[in-house]
């Protein structure tokens, strides 16, 4: 297992942007991965939204967290140039991104994260999870339940008529 600190990821990304990784780990087998996951890291190393160290790589960008929960992240980003920001939220198609209240496109980065190009200036960026498939399933299930209740009502009414005759 090889662990490197503060290395450039320029050779790994498609935008040819020189960003630095706090830690870069090369794992050769499952036992090394288990060993790595079993090691304890400081709270600062494991925080998903640890933006304090971001300014050391790009001092022209300031990021301030406004709201943060499992399904919502809202930050203010101040930048003197157009900036590409990677949010450490696990990528899934149901995530949505808005910049200043306008829906914008994002890309899957590092295989599992959400990347967004932020224009220069000050912007409020909102990343939120909108479970479209869950909502669609809930609507379909509700319609089915409603139809089932109507069916049961009609069957009981028909059986009551047969008993009366």
Describe the structure.
The protein contains 4 helices and 10 strands; from the N terminus they run ββαααββββββββα. A hairpin with a 3-residue loop joins β8 (107-109) and β9. By secondary structure, the chain is α+β, with helices and mostly antiparallel strands. The longest helix is centred in the last third of the chain and has 33 residues, at 132-164. The chain folds into 3 domains: 1-39, no CATH class; 51-130, Immunoglobulin-like; 132-165. It has helices at residues 30-38, 43-46, 54-57, 132-164; strands at 2-8, 20-26, 61-68, 72-79, 83-87, 95-99, 102-104, 107-109, 113-118, 121-129.
Distance between the termini: 83 Å
Number of domains: 3
Whole-number radius of gyration?
25 Å
Identify the CATH class of the largest domain.
Answer: Mainly Beta
Strand order of the largest sheet: 3-4-10-6-7
In terms of DSSP E residues, the strand content is 35-45%
Q: What is the 3D shape?
A: elongated
Mean pLDDT: 77
Reading the helices and strands in chain order gives: EEHHHEEEEEEEEH
> Helical content, roughly?
25-40%
CATH level-3 fold name of the largest domain: Immunoglobulin-like
| Structural class determined from secondary elements | alpha+beta
Largest sheet: 5 strands, antiparallel
CATH-scheme architecture of the largest domain: Sandwich
């Amino acid at each position: 297992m090889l662990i490197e600190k503060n290395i450039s990821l320029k050779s790994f990304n498609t935008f040819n942007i020189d960003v630095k990784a706090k830690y870069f780990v090369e794992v050769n087998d499952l036992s090394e991965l288990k060993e790595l996951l079993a090691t304890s890291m400081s709270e600062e190393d494991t925080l998903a939204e640890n933006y304090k160290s971001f300014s050391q790589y790009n001092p022209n960008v300031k990021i301030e967290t406004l709201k943060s929960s499992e399904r919502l992240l809202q930050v203010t980003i101040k930048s003197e140039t157009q900036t590409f920001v990677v949010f450490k939220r696990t990528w899934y198609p149901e995530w949505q991104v808005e910049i200043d209240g306008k829906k914008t496109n994002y890309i899957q980065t590092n295989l599992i994260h959400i990347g967004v190009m932020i224009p220069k200036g000050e912007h409020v960026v909102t990343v939120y999870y909108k479970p479209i498939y869950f909502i669609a399933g809930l609507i379909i299930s509700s319609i089915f339940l409603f139809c089932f209740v109507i069916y049961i009502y009609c069957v009981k009414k028909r059986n009551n008529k047969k008993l009366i005759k």
